[in-house]
Amino acid sequence: MFEALKARDPEALGLLLATDFQLKSPGEPAVDRQAFIAAVGTIPGTILEVGSDDTQARVMGEMGILTGHQRAVVRLDDGSVVTQVGAFTDVARWEKDRWVLVHAYNVNVSETVQRQ
After folding, report:
1. Which residue of 8, 58, 78, 90 pairs with 66 in a disulfide if CB–CB is 3.0 to 4.6 A?
2. Calpha distance 59→67 (Å, rounded)
3. Predicted structure pTM score
4. Which 3 state secondary structure label does DSSP give 79?
5. Residue 116: pLDDT above 90?
């Protein structure tokens, strides 16, 4: 998922997300699969890094839960670098011999901007 986000790859994201995928963040309306893929393509600047050092997974039959902190680093067109950290809980379903995300919940933890 992190590589697909960094590459802004709609095909890879499409393979990772269930048709009924939904993203939810506090205070925001739910975002469906199509809108999420479109939004990733419009992230401004250059995505330098997307990842997590503390992802944990729990499998319960055909469902899985992933938790952790996502860190994204983006260089904007003005040269400033934005680092955003969010806590996430993702729910995946085993479907047709692979895992697909059906629900993602993200909370922004911190954001820093380094101006050039």
Report:
1. 90
2. 12
3. 0.90
4. coil
5. no
